[in-house]
Amino acid sequence: MKRIIIAEDDPITRMDLCEILEGAGYAVAGQACDGLEAIELCRECKPDLVLMDVKMPLLNGMKATQMIKEEKLAPCVVLLTAYSGQEFIDEAKNLGVKGYLVKPVNEKGLLPTIEVALSISNEILCMEETIHKTKDELKTRIIIDKAKGILMKKYSLTEEDAYSSLRKISMDKNYSIKKVAQAIICNE
To answer: Which residues pair with 51 in a beta bridge?
Structure first.
């Protein structure tokens, strides 16, 4: 069940949003009446999505969204606003929000926006994981290649023999090939 935080200063609107979301099967993890409270709730609850009003006391929704993004407190923010001016839209795009709803908001507009925003957010998270994994694999490959080079030079081995030597040490010592390669590099 996806967890959502609602940040809206109007209690009636907040209650309506809560009813719509819970009726659609989402878990409302928390409700905030200002941007500062929204940030604190995100720190506590680690929601999947924040539904953020733009105009709120203490800290407006745009600034709160910026802080949520910078601290990576929630992967997805959808803004709620009465403003449809281009400057607000541009600022929202620059913040990397996943949705922008102009009030008044109803169930027919809210639920598809939430669903699409969560889907986009999930795709981005998957891409980020793939990028991270690929970077780690590349770093490992560079370390192994460097260690192979050391073995090739030191013992006049072919590349294949140097790699076989790394693998054998790895299996004999029950260490990852990366750790073996790092040890060879450190020993030089």
So the answer is: 6, 78
- Please give the average pLDDT of every successive group of 10 residues along the chain, which has 188 residues: 97 96 98 97 98 95 97 97 92 96 95 97 96 97 96 94 95 96 93
For the chain, domains (ranges, CATH) are 3-105 (3.40.50.2300), 131-187 (1.10.10.10)
Backbone torsions φ then ψ of 32, nearest 5 degrees = -125, 150
Within 10 angstroms of residue 126's Cβ, the number of other Cβ atoms is: 10
**What number of other Cβ atoms are within 10 A of residue 187's Cβ?**
8
Are the C-beta atoms of 77 and 95 separated by less than 8 Å?
Answer: yes
Residues 7 and 65 sit within 8 Å (Cβ to Cβ):
no
Task: Give the residue among 77, 65, 14 at the shortest CA–CA distance from 39.
Answer: 65
pTM: 0.82
